[in-house]
Design goal:
Distance between the termini: 26 Å
CATH architecture: 2-Layer Sandwich
Number of domains: 1
Strand order of the largest sheet: 2-3-1-4
Strand content: 25-35%
Largest sheet: 4 strands, antiparallel
Number of strands: 4
Radius of gyration: 14 Å
Helix content: 25-40%
Oligomer: single chain
CATH class: Alpha Beta
Number of helices: 3
Structural class: alpha+beta
Shape: globular
């Protein structure tokens, strides 16, 4: 069993511009050293609308998440991502109270 920590993060609903999926994944996958405390990120593509993506990002603590979210490099990355979206994303921040992970997702 892994280490137990109080984890925190966000779920964002993003409506992408048509044809923007590959580019937004490239922006999201860019390596960065400012993700201290990052635990996991998952991206779901909606069956109902393939241009809608739900992004879940999890950090070891609320402080680690806020430090990342407020960093200049994340602001720059978000501005690049926002250009690929049809509208502003919906953000839902909160504490993770349960997890059950058995496999690693692949694209």
């Amino acid at each position: 069993m892994g280490e137990e920590v109080a984890v925190y993060g966000t779920i964002a609903k993003m409506k992408l511009k048509p044809g923007a999926e590959e580019k937004i994944m490239e922006v999201m996958e860019e390596s960065d050293d400012d993700r201290a405390g990052h635990v996991a990120t998952y991206v779901f593509k909606s069956d109902a609308d393939p241009n809608v993506h739900f992004v879940t990002t999890i950090f070891e603590s609320k402080d680690a998440y806020k430090k990342f979210a407020d960093s200049p490099s994340q602001d720059k990355r978000f501005r690049q991502m926002r250009e690929l979206m049809a509208a502003d994303p919906e953000w839902h921040d909160g504490e993770v109270i349960h997890q059950d992970t058995k496999v690693i997702a692949t694209r």
